[in-house]
Amino acid sequence: MNYVFDGSYQGFLCCVFECFEMKEWHAVPVAEGLFQPDIFLPERTIFTDVDKAQRIQNGLKSKFGKLIVDDIYRAFLSEDPVAWQAAYYIMVRLFQGQTDVLENFGDTQVLYFHQTLKKVSRERHRMKAFIRFSKSNDGLYYAIIEPDFNVLPLILSFFRNRYADMPWIIYDVKRKYGFYYDTVAVSEIEIDTTEQKNLQSSSLTIALDERDELFKRLWKQYFKSTNIEARRNIKLHVQHVPKRYWKYLVEKQR
Amino acid sequence: MNVLERIEEKLMILADAAKYDVSCSSSGSKRKNTGGIGDASSSGICHTYTEDGRCVSLLKILLTNHCIYDCAFCVSRKSNDVKRAAFTVEEVVDLTMNFYRRNYIEGLFLSSGIFKNADFTMERLLRIVKKLRLEERYNGYIHLKTIPGASEELIQEAGLYVDRMSINLEMPTEAGLKLVAPEKSHDAVRKPLQFVNTKIQTFQNEKKLIKHTPTFVPAGQSTQMVIGATPENDWEIMSVADEFYKKYQLKRVYYSGYIPINNTDTNLPQIGTRPPLIRENRLYQTDWLLRFYNFSLNEILNPAFTQLDLDIDPKLGWALRNLHLFPVDINKADYQTIIRVPGIGRGSAMKIVSARKYGSLREYQLKKMGIAYNRAKHFITCADSVTPLGFKYAPQLKNIILQTGNSKYKQEIAENQLKLF
């Protein structure tokens, strides 16, 4: 049995609900966009029901703790269909009473789940490190990111706590949404397509703070001066700062 | 020259002079943002990496590279003909805040050459730290160098504002230090380390009784030794490190391969000598074995075995000298035994111990868990291991591992080897 859901997190949780409601233990959740009909497997479209999703969420939390809820959500943010299936497999096993399923690292699915969590966590950490704010002339700090996984929701509290006294925007161009913090609260923003184009082109429409260029230059200078030429090791450098991130790193710009 | 160019030049000189301090860690502090800007991330964050592969976490600068000392190994020594510069207090604060707000850095690492005397220098450093904390309401990470010989009052006051303090041992032994820096001594380092450590303990004990005790150097202390400038062997170096870890409860000891900077002192390696990068790596590996793998120093290095192998890691070296302890049965041995197997780290050991409750582990499962199976397979047995035919002696085993392995150092070691013919 294939469960076709709409690709949302709520829809994903509804698949677990459906599985228990229909007692279909061998069902596999597939997102709408990725689904390819299989001649040998029946399929059913799962409609997203917020209440059902909430029940699964609450059940996970009260029975197995908040940490597991977070882990499932993180695995979901990986946007990896295989990881989704692993997360689904784990939820079903948990509700079936196999409460220690997560410790069984010998199980391929469980191991894959943990490895995905590691990958998502690594990307989340990288975003904390690699985000570079520019300051506009009205005092707004903004940054553009393009993370491998959808980790933006995971780093918000970090940036809110750290940069509490300044307004900022972090925008994910890959997934076309971002968050704006106005020194009081964080809210989600979306930029329409015309504005989007302006952001991606090199001629920014946002007027920069007069000293912004200076600090960018100083940072590049610092990056160069703190390097020890005798220890040059480009392989290690690229391993730590993979090339796909260079686009938004001030110090890697010419 | 305008203001901008001047500050750029200063940054160039003073960042360049500070880069030989290898400490970059921004971890260990839990300072919260209390109504200003910034906090400390307890795991630390590396914001970028230089082209030599070292992490850039903190804005690492000297306040000035004017110095009254003349230590042969140091770029900023009195007799060296380099450009001198000095930041003002305001410049350092402005740079730090603007870099921090743009998320370039995790905090400030502030050191300085000694000008006039120790107290004068320390007092100036303290002024920067206080301005950041009190006027800018900055709660990010600050790593401050303790200036040896500064008064205890100044050191104690600084401790209330910073996250980590450190003093460099420079050379691993007193004798080595006297060779290149006759004006310095290990005692001048031990005294402030001891003083700060006692204070940290006092504040921590008070914290247990009174909740609102201020934090004092929450990320602890560290030190650094230069490797390869003076003729100490690895055993001497690690003995000193081991002693300092135990005595002063240091968070880290850093080992810095010496990079030749002049040809005037014939005691030191001359320009053109490659820095001892592999040796440095092996020392760090040993350091980790001591701190996280429950090894004691005399198991890895002792008077009879004073130099680490360059071609294999110290854990493998230890295992080859102690073949009677192997093979270890992965499905029965305890965690402490498993982490001693070459090629298995703490993470994988934890996974193994957790997973074997569900059934005996097999080879394909171990491989997937991420252990270095190529190395580990000679030292373990699992559910489907084949009984090996005959016994392999250590040199034999080492050869097999080296030939089948793919060490990143293979090339370099081959180049450094002396040729017989």
TrEMBL record, chain A:
One short Pfam name that applies is DUF4130
Stretches assigned to the DUF4130 domain: 84-251
Q: Enumerate the NCBIfam families for this protein.
A: SAM_7_link_chp (TIGR03915)
Q: What is this protein called?
A: DNA metabolism protein
Q: Please name the source species.
A: Paenimyroides baculatum
- The organism's lineage? Bacteria, Pseudomonadati, Bacteroidota, Flavobacteriia, Flavobacteriales
TrEMBL record, chain B:
**Record carries keyword ATP-binding:** no
**UniProt-listed CDD domains:** Radical_SAM
| Xref: InterPro entries | Aldolase_TIM, DNA_rSAM_put, Endo/Exo/Phosphatase_dom_1, rSAM, rSAM_sf, RuvA_2-like
Q: Which UniProt keywords apply?
A: Iron, Iron-sulfur, Metal-binding, S-adenosyl-L-methionine
- Essential cofactor(s): [4Fe-4S] cluster
Question: Has keyword Ribosomal protein?
Answer: no
User: What would be an example GO MF term here?
Assistant: catalytic activity
* Residues covered by the Radical SAM core domain: 62-190
* SUPFAM superfamilies xrefs: Radical SAM enzymes (SSF102114), RuvA domain 2-like (SSF47781)
Q: Which NCBIfam families match?
A: rSAM_link_UDG
Q: What's the protein name?
A: Putative DNA modification/repair radical SAM protein
Record organism: Paenimyroides baculatum
